[in-house]
Amino acid sequence: MTVSWDTFERYRQKGLDARRAGQWDSARVYLLEAARAMVELSKSAAGEELREGRRQMAARLLELAKDCENATRENRRAPAARRSGSGNGGSSNSPASESEGEQSAQQWIVREKPSLRFDDVAGLEDVKEDIRLKMIYPFEHADLAEKFGIRPGGGVLMYGPPGTGKTMLAKATAGEIEATFFRISPADVLSKWVGEAEQNIKKLFDAAANEPRSIIFIDEIEALVPARRDEGSSVMQRVVPQILQGVEGFDKKAGRPILLMGATNVPWQLDPAMLRPGRFDEKVYIPLPDLPARRKMLEIYLSKRPLADHLDLDAFAEKLEGYSGADIKYLCDRSATVPFLQSVATGEEGEITSQILADVLNDTQRSVTPEMLKRFAEWGKAAATA
Ligand SMILES: Nc1ncnc2c1ncn2[C@@H]1O[C@H](COP(=O)(O)OP(=O)(O)OP(=O)(O)O)[C@@H](O)[C@H]1O
Ligand SMILES: [Mg+2]
Questions:
Q1: What are phi and psi of 277, to 5 degrees?
Q2: How far is CA 168 from the centre of its chain?
Q3: What is the mean pLDDT of residues 215-229?
Q4: 160 C-alpha vs ligand 2 centroid, how far in Å?
Q5: pTM value?
Q6: Residue 232 — left, alpha, or beta (φ > 0 → left; ψ -120 to 50 → alpha)?
């Protein structure tokens, strides 16, 4: 069977679109199809390096598909979170009263109740403490916070190389305080909000108003800024300040806190206006995992799988210097595939051995380069003094 890039790209795009719209079931199916197409494409690639690259891409798509499955399950577990409360012009879930506008709002407002906790995120201890201070303690000790004049919230911007846990940490923050998690995708804003940005932001805040606690998360926030100034996408430049204003105003009147989090792995593409005080004033660098964090990842991603005796995970964690969290998760998954397939083929249950780990490590590249790290360090320094 030959698969064209077109086929792959179509499935991938549909999968990502459905995922953004929170249509988890169809997202999962499309992403699985895209992964399958990519596996086919990998077979016809010239050269081992290219083949491996494509296999990795297929593995990431499978990962995304699995995420969609988890999201379906989480949403089923928390049906109450989808129901909006009474009053104040917010959207109602009863189909009879749903106007067309509200229906479309229901489509793009993706609400989740993440079950992730800080403990599921390896390392990043000082970042977690930062978030606790700013976002969690003021919730948990509302009386004290009020007495001392401490306001929760504001905007926290996480930046750092890809695959270091930014998205995960945003979800885990929501999980920690049992907040409803509203994820805004810039792609949605770009494609569907044109001319309606103001109304849409209002709808978003109405929806958040019906939840006891909310986190609004803008992933890949750099996409809200046009790549070139002369493209003049003024809609985009209005959206973020408006959301930030919304957060501020809302916080004061409703007494139901909303926190704003953003993430990017290309912070230098951001509009400096976003970083002004009162906006994303808190900028947090999310680095590559240090040794204890890498060790903890091995614990998280390997310990429930069949392991050979005397496997020295401490030593393996040492060797993973420079690998991102996503790289390490991928390494663990691949290391499990080998003995799994062997077990299927032979009928004898195998296990993950140090040889398998070494082999997989040997042909997995670090996805973050030293040049990238240098660029982050320079940007961080400039942003701190700006
Ligand atoms: N600190 C971590 N602890 C545990 N797992 C991690 C960690 N960082 C990354 N991972 C693994 O890598 C996957 C990707 O991480 P995540 O999507 O949060 O990265 P990101 O920083 O948002 O990347 P990007 O900048 O590309 O969006 C996670 O789903 C998880 O499996
Ligand atoms: Mg991310």
A1: -55, 140
A2: 5
A3: 72
A4: 10
A5: 0.71
A6: left
Q: Say if ligand 1 is within 6 A of residue 326 CB.
A: yes
Compute, in angstroms, the gap from residue 169 CA to the centroid of ligand 1.
8
Q: Is 262 in the pocket of ligand 1 (CB under 6 A)?
A: no
Least reliable range by pLDDT among 154-158, 322-326, 332-336:
154-158
Structure tokens at 308: 């050979």
Q: How far is the C-alpha of 365 from the C-alpha of 359, rounded, in Å?
A: 12
Q: Which domains does the chain have, with CATH numbers?
A: 5-79 (1.20.58), 99-288 (3.40.50.300), 291-367 (1.10.8.60)
Residue of 82, 89, 109 lying closest to 192 (CA atoms):
109
Burial of 138 (0-12, 13-18, 19+ CB in 10 A): buried
Average pLDDT on 308-314 reads 92
325 lines ligand 1 (CB under 6 A): yes
Report which of residues 263 and 246 the model is more confident about.
Answer: 263
Q: What are phi and psi of 317, to 5 degrees?
A: -60, -35
Report pLDDT for 171: 94
| Test site for ligand 1: of 168, 264, 375, most ligand atoms within 8 A of the Cβ | 168
Selection from 28, 219, 182 nearest residue 105 by Cα:
182
- Is there an atom of ligand 1 within 6 Å of 207 CB? no
Contact assessment for residue 207 and residue 90, using Cβ atoms and an 8 Å cutoff: yes
Q: Is the CB of 163 under 6 A from ligand 1?
A: yes
Contact indicator for 352, 334 with CB cutoff of 8 Å: no
How far is 16 from 28, CA to CA, in rounded Å?
Answer: 9
CA–centroid distance, residue 46 to ligand 2 (Å): 31
Would strands 258-264 and 214-218 be described as parallel, antiparallel, or unpaired? parallel
Tokens of 340: 């799994």
